[in-house]
Structures are given as structure tokens and as C-alpha cells.
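Can anyone check this?
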Amino acid sequence: MEEHAKVWPSQQSRGATEVRLQTDCSFGPRNGLPTSLAQQLAEELPGTRFLLPTAPPGPHGLNSWYETEKTGHLDGRIYELRQQLLAFVQSYCNRLGLQMAQVAFLGFSQGSMLAALLALELPKPCAGLVVLNGGMPWDLEVTDALGNTRILFVSGGCDRTVTVETTRMAKERLLELGAQHLEYLEIPDLKHEISSEVICLAADFFSQVLTYRVEIEGCIQIPKGTKVILRSAFEDCLAWSDANTATVESFVCSDEKYWIRLGEECQLLDAKGFTQQLPVQLGGSHAWVAGSSIAADGGLEWLLLAQQDAVEVKRLAPHRVQLPLGSVLRLGGLKSCAQRLRGLEGRRARLRQVLPDGRYAVEVEGEEALVRLHPRHLVP
């Protein structure tokens, strides 16, 4: 699956000359269990790459993205840092094959100023911006993209470092500049910190704006050359043989059927008339998915063929079989699921990613974003 990127300019104290970027995108402490914000966000957004650049060090060993002049203006280093960080983000996008519309920025405290410079001066809108306990540069040179940029602005009622008066002025400034998708929240008991409530807010925001966009090039179909097993010759599992296997030749969109070649002959069949011969691993040996049936408990089970000296038929629960990515299957058993999933019943889908919780991220015909489904809802 394509990855998204989130850039998080971290909040530090005082600084000096150069940007030092942290490019290691692993999460978790060296010892003990992880408790960081990045770790928790990563668990909620498994397809997202997190970049956490570090502010430049100062003469006293502390770090800062900028200093504030006596007049209240930001010193010029922040704009140089913005250019360096933007170049870094763009180079990273080129390596991952991402567009800026798949990148979101988050900044806490001082880092929010730089995050705003990065996100709101782009020629085209990024995926979104999260401002946590921070202000806003007054000399923003925004473009028309601001109107289409999603912004989450969180302020703390007990924050004595960046007060609610400051954040309210920053909010009004964004509205004056043309922000149309701004969500401003004041949390009464929040200090100058990133609380568990803020983590949840950020995770919900990113799960909305960092949706995977599918390039719709037509209907999802089983690729030409795929080996299939005819269902008519496989009603009895033990009757299966090489003579029952065929090959997909083409797909007829008008009829929603496939031309299947069996030996020297071709047949026009509905997808329900055959099963893809999908390769899987079974106890260290090769096997093939040959179909599915209803188990005694009413759930779906897979029919697997393991061919060594003789054909061996096994029935396994779907979660015990890891299908090859790119496989095209049909969705079923969704009528008892959440309302948003019921409408997907019977549609074709292509497997894109195996998620840590055992579900699949699938590209569903007619949908613009990947859908997370349990293996029991994938029908061969």
C-alpha cells in the first residue's frame, strides 16, 4: 500500500544555525514499553510514515526552531529552516512515490509555527495541519490552497506558555486569510502538554485526512493468465484433478463474465463458476485455494489443496490462510456488519496490505479509499 507521511517539527528551546533532521522512522524506547505520541499514532495509522525532524542546537546545548526578536517578530532563520525542511519532505515523497496531498504536518508549541509555514504556503493543499498549543506567523504568504487545507487547532485553557488569548488571535488570523476547513478546540484543563485526549484528537484527524486514494482505472477484475478451478467439476473436493483447471483469457465488462480457456476450448463464465487457484503456504509446503464452504458454526471456511504425492484437501478458518497480495476476490457476509460496510456486499476487491491485527486493507470497486476487512469477508 502507498504510504502517507506526517512531518512533525518538534518543540525545543533555544537554537542556532543548521537543521538536523532525524530520519529514523522507527518508534519505541530502547528499554521498556513505548508510551510516546508517535507510537500511539503509528498504531492507529499503519500505512503512515512519520518524520520527526529535530531543531538545530544552540550554544548552550538546547534546540530551537527560531528566536523571537524584541519587536515580537520571528528571526529570519525560521524561513531558511522552512526551505530546508520542505526540500527534505519533497525528496522523501519522491522516494516513496507520494504527492503533497498525502502529507500532513503537525507541530507542538514552537514547532507549530514552522508546521504552519510548511503547510499553508504550498501552491497546492497538503492533506492537513495540526496545531497543538501554538501560535501562527503573522506574515504568512498563503495561497489559494489554504481554503482547501484541513486544519485542527488545539489550545489549552491552563496553558501559561501559549495562552488561549494568543491562540484565539491566531485562529482569527487564519479565518481572515481564507481558512475554510478550520476546527478550533479549547480544552479547559489542558496545560502546555500533549495529553491522551490530544493524542486521540490527532489520531482521529489524521485517520480522516490521510485516507488512501485509489486510482480508478476501471473495474477490478481477475488478471489475464490467472489459473482457476471450475466449480462445476469441483462439487466433490476429492474429484479435483489437473483436468479441471483453466486459465482466464479476458473479461467482458458488458456481461460481467470471463472468457476461460480449458484446453483448446473457451467458455464464457460468471465469476461464481470458478475459483482462482491462489497459492498459499500450508505447513511449510505449497497449497492452493480451491474454494470455500460454510462451516458447522455458520461461518466461512477455506478449501485448500496440498499436492505432494497425492491431493490432500483441508478445511481451514480464513484467518489461518494468508492470501497473496494483489488477489481479486468477492466480498461477502457483510450484512451483519456496520452500516457503512453493508453496501459493499458482493463487490470485487483487490488485496493491498496485510494489517498488524490480521485484517486486510482492500481496494474495493467503486470506493475511493482502502477498506479494512476481516479475512472471513473475502470470498474466492
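Reply from J.R.: I decoded it. The longest strand covers residues 285-294.
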